[in-house]
Amino acid sequence: MILPLYALDFGHGEAMAASVLAARGLGNMLGDLPAGAATARWGDRPVMQIGIAMMFVSTVLAGAVATTALLLICATGIGFAMATWLLARLALVGDMVVSQWRGQALSTMAGLQRVGHFIGPALVGYSIEQFGFNDTFFILAAGIGMTLLFVNLSGRISADSPASAQPNQSPSKTHHTEPEASYTSVLAAHRRTWFTAGQVVMLLTLLRSARTLLIPVWGVQLELGAAEIGIILSLAAGFDMIMFPFAGLIMDRLGRRWSATACIALLGLGLGLIPFTTTSIAFATAAILAGIGNGLGSGINMTLGTDLAPAEDRGRFLGIWRLIGDSGSLIGPSIIGFLASTWSLKSAIWLVTASGPWAVVVLWLTVRETLHRQPRQPTANQ
Prior knowledge:
Layout: H1 2-9, H2 14-42, H3 44-64, H4 68-96, H5 99-131, H6 133-160, H7 183-189, H8 191-195, H9 197-221, H10 226-242, H11 244-254, H12 256-273, H13 280-296, H14 300-308, H15 314-342, H16 345-353, H17 355-366
């Protein structure tokens, strides 16, 4: 929320707000492959710590910038840090959780992240109106610093626990045992996966990044204040958040494709309705519908990626997987910014939402179901 509103506060239009989010998407892409290689070499926890530290530095710098050029650089740094943190966390869960429980585990992790999305926008909107953008960035940086401290302390606790003394039982060390493999070989070995499942995850990320940009920008078009936009974002995030248990159950009971389909359909419908809204209530309703759709896909990108990733090259596979997915976070805002500046914001929204039906077609025609159900064990009476 804060990045596009900050860009608009500089006096530029929707194209600059889109450029700032596109820069964050570019940072995601730039960070994916290095993060995958670092996770394979050093393990999950050290890479998580590096990502959080980079996020802290980038957020502090964002609060101190005075030009949009520097803001673009900081947004790229934030994206790089996010990619590093998220990939290491994803690799950790992929190693620890078996397939038939992975959907619920990753949807729960995504749901916890959505708790922050629920609380954050309203607090950030209030902070912006009370203290301004710069101080709000510094407040966010303080929260990131506390997160880094927590991760460091949890690492020491697990290192001192009896379980960590036993061989092969520390999840953060699992990636040290991966054989050396090049990204080129992993890319070639799974080229069909990149073209099919990768295309779906890229289009879903495109829709999600469009949602992140469009709700604040359309709120400004409706002449809503930062606090009002924050409340609407929090409402949408609240419905998004309560969907994650259902997302996990759908993924682990019906399959990954059903969860992705529900997510894409409702997310695209909610975004497509935004241009028709002229009041705050109608706008909030469309945002909530998009939030429900997004929530029904809680953890779907991560679950598909860890399902498809080979155990021997998990870190590098997930690096490429996230690179392809994160390309959507660059393409989406770029398309919206270009079309908004040349045609209209409405046309940009409708073109982006048209990618949803295509993603569903590709999903069902080319991507296999990755849920592996365990055979039922006979009971004592059988």
